[in-house]
Amino acid sequence: MLNASTLLLIPLLPLLSFLFITFFGKKHLPKASGLISIFILGVSTLLSLNVAYNYFFVVGMTNGIYQAIIPMKLEWLQFYPGVSIDMGIILDPISVMMLVVVTFISLMVHIYSLGYMKGEERFAVYYSFLDLFTFSMLGLVIATNLFQMYFFWELVGLSSYLLIGYYFTKPSAVAAAKKAFIVTRFADLGFLIGILILSFHAGTLDIQTLIKRLTTSDTTFYSSAILTGFMGVSSLTWGLALVFIGGAGKSAMFPLHIWLPDAMEGPTPVSALIHAATMVVAGVYLVARLFPIYAISSPHLLEIIGYIGIISSALAAIIACTQTDIKRVLAYSTISQIGYMLASLGVSQYGGLNGEGFSASMFHLFTHAFFKALLFLCAGSVIHYVHSNEVKDMGGLRKKMPITHLCFLLACLAIAGIPPLSGFFSKEEILAAAFAHNQTIFYIAWLTAGLTSFYMFRLYYLTFWNKEYSPAHLAHNHHDEGSWNMKLPLLVLMLGAVGAGFVPFHHLVTSDGQPYENEFHLNITLMAIGLSLFAIIIATIFYRKKNNLPDKISSMFSRFYNFAFHKFYFDEVYQFISQKILFNVMGAFSSWFDKNIVNGSVNTTAFITEAFSETIKPVQSGKVQGYALAFLFGILGLIVVLFFFNF
Amino acid sequence: MNLLVLLIIIPVVALAISVFVHAEKVKSVILFGAIVELILCFELLREFMVERAAGNNSPYLFEIVYPWFKTWNINFHAGVDGISVSMLLLTSLVTVSAILVSWKIDNKPREFFMMLMLLTVGAIGFFISMDLIMAFFFLELSVVPKFLLIAHWGSGRKVYSATKLALMLMAGSSLILVGILLLYLKSNGSFDISVLQGLHLDNETQKLIFPLMFMGFGVFTALFPFHTWVPDGHSSAPTAGSMFLAGISMKLGGYGCIRFAAILLPEGTQYYSTAIIILSTIAIVYGAFATLMQKDIKYINAYSSVSHCGFVLLGIGMLNQTALTGAVLQMISHGLMTALFFGAIGMIYSRTHTRDVRELGGLLKIMPFIGSIYIIVGLCSLGLPGLSGFVSEMTVFMGAWKVPGTFYKAATILACASIVVTAVYILQAVAKVMLGPIKDPHFLTLTDAAWYERSASWLLMLAIIIMGVLPMWLAQMISHDTAPMAVKFLTLNP
């Protein structure tokens, strides 16, 4: 069942749907486009599940390892012998896992959008963009070639731009879309230069060959990458670091995270799909894809990546505690959880039990996709109901929206790591891996887990408890909590958020493809659950009923609170850099220089030529006597010259 | 009859007929001629690929020689390789599209369309020339129509711009002429490039002639600091004129730099490669930053052309096969892309009667087709995968990075960095012109593209997408003919 033509259908079906809607459906089937695209994606999802089943359970392991299978690879553009962009499909545990996650979450979001986006003017266009995104993301996941990955990497960036800016007449949405594209583009510059460096030294762009050549120390490729360098750092490390910057941009790691909270301007289902479950974890996926090189050839860099992850995680969690926009809280929470995944990769090594961080990271990516998509879709239902993103307009919704309430509560428990929900298992593995390899990261991760529980339950109580729901405009409240097509995905994802933790990841997805047995650490588990419960209790005291405790506490730490509330002033710093330096200095200087110096000298040349002609114009007077005189002097002059210089 | 001769004859016949038919009918004649030309170019492409597939590896195919001025050994010598075939395709595509876009022009239509065709003759003749004087003849043939197009059908400071453009291009041409004559003297009386290529001119001669040729052609392709005709010329020109200027005319320069400077004078190229790289990197970065501050959508595109054409020269300066192939690809990609960009801008301007970004806004809602074209071509400009810009820029970068040495790496990194600035100014322009609320209630009455504008856009758009999705055949065809050049550079001692 793992033949190329079937596999090719998985990404190509969404592309087909995109093309069909763009060129035909948009005009002729504006209403039915959604159903068509759901049907097509449904087929893609079934195929992915089938592939996963076949890969893990039918083909299974060879020599005790889940082997990477490459059913197809075509040369797309050759740069020079050996180095070419190939378009291919790779099947290995992480890509198969991602295939399932991407198609499944995308399908749920497609179904949910039927209700959420109903009546939108550009309904069909919305679906076509979703399909474009799904195609690009699938292309990224199955990439066999570093440049193929970059190719689709840019395309997911485009889809994200189009979907954030879906309400394109709204200036804030336009600004957010632009910001997201430019910030990630800036990071992708790192990715691109990283690719240039790595491919130059490895003499290939093919990921598997690249890994082989850059991890085996007796090859000429490896020694050229290690021996050359810049500023005391080897080319290999530079390349890997730059590639990681690309990943950090996509995955919204500090300090490149600023686009993600703004990206919440897009429709909420989009945030669930792109900015929570799939695209933003591309950075983690990228590091995981090249993991052997990072772990074997540049372990110090990997450690730094781990620190970047955990610092992002902690800072985002702190900011999340202060935000009042439901989607922004979730956005910061996403940054925080992705930071967790990277930290987990950072504490991992290659192979065996020492690679448990890798497995844990992928596990958390998997479970996070379910509970975070669920959280976003619940938030979408709430926003749909109250017509506002601000928590002050919510409160007391548990009776009005029972199903959403239940789903949200379970998702909160999952992200807080309460057993036996999915988040518990993956977080426990991450903490265990961190405890074994890096105590600093472990303690920060542990504290962040507490913060996570606190802000999630703060959000939960503010939305569903806190006060009686009494909207300012009662007329708005004519509808139910959502149609069946909005409730169904919630319930399906809820099953995922509850049950995904029971997938035995350390048997399926490991750093070297070899299953291992993980140990259960009772003390770490107790520490984590204890802190989570403690945080939940505090959140309950603070926010279950309206009281003035939160205000008191925040005014006690007013300086720090304000600092966090303003997101540590990252936006302002960027604003300064882009406005003052990029535009006002570089741009203004270039354009001034061009206008006055370059163009000025051209005009001056023209002016001088003209003035000169003007001066010598009288010579051509038309008077024959004048010409004769000049002729005479000319002859005399020549005679003198010839006479004296003896020509 | 030889296909190449036919390529010259068809437009000339179309021009001749246009003189006699009724002014209203001229555009149909010219369009018909252009379409026949396009079909012939595809036929040429097909035959060329068949020949190459059959193993014909001679550097120039379909060669034909007619004596012209026997006394001076000047011949009509035509011949094509992969580079010229792709340039011919570009020229004929842009021509058809430019004619379609100007379909409704009513100010002296006969003269207007004849000028366009004359430009095409110049470009086609130049791209098939294997004789320096013949090339120079066709190059000059294309300068005068440009002047008239801008000065008569243009807008804004049109006389100033037209004069500036004509004078600067003439200055460039005069450098080229001096170079050509010097080559003639040093080669014992030959203008033929197949002869000149085989000669080995001594280093001093090459160092003397190369800058003349390179700077001369550089003026055409916006070599920094001789680029100032670009913004003024493009923005004052009528829509079809801008499409021609950016799409074809700037390529004459790039092509000339490769064919008549780099190939003929390899030592000279190598000697000056550092200077080429410095100037082109400046053009790339500085053009991008200067674009940031522009308020007129035509100026935005004109300055971005300066930046994008820098990639062509950078590719040449890096002296290896990949980079050279990238340079040619970039010429094609930039030609298609800016032609379409100026086409879309023309469509916008003819409706809104303003090109100031501060006065535009929300146009996508009113004219979805034109808006989408503008956005897609903008994405091509910022190097989005799946469109032509990605293919060419990445090829230049990959080639450039292969050259060892910190200087070259630094230039490549700066060039790469410019794609971020490109993203900034493109998205900024898109946001201001296309997105956001509708700025002016008058815009609500505007209409979307008409059939001729749609077909013009689709033609170039398809070319951009085909090149972006299936670049391998084009890259292969070009790299076959950049390979011998690269080998030449390799055998030189640095």
Could you name the key traits of this structure?
heterodimer; A: 647 residues; mainly alpha; two-stranded antiparallel ribbon; two-stranded antiparallel sheet; 26 helices; 4 strands; B: 494 residues; 2 strands; globular
Structure commentary:
Chain A is globular. Chain A has a two-stranded antiparallel sheet. A two-stranded antiparallel sheet of chain A has the order 3-4. The model of chain A has no long low-confidence stretch (mean pLDDT 86). Chain A is mostly helical and 647 residues long. Chain A is 72% helix and 4% strand. The longest helix of chain A is centred in the last third of the chain and has 47 residues, at 570-616. Chain A has helices at residues 4-28, 33-59, 93-116, 123-141, 146-164, 171-202, 207-215, 220-227, 235-250, 259-262, 268-277, 282-289, 291-297, 299-320, 326-346, 356-386, 402-416, 422-437, 439-464, 484-499, 505-508, 522-543, 549-556, 558-565, 570-616, 624-645; strands at residues 69-80, 83-91, 229-230, 233-234. Chain B has 494 residues and is mainly alpha-helical. Chain B has one domain (3-491). Chain B has 20 helices and 2 strands. In chain B, strands 1-2 form a two-stranded antiparallel sheet. In chain B, helix 14 (321-352) packs across helix 20. Chain B is globular, with a radius of gyration of 21 Å. The termini of chain B are far apart. In chain B, 62% of the residues are buried. The model of chain B has no long low-confidence stretch (mean pLDDT 89). At the A-B interface, strand 1, helix 5, helix 6 and helix 25 of A face helix 7, helix 12, helix 17, helix 18 and helix 20 of B.
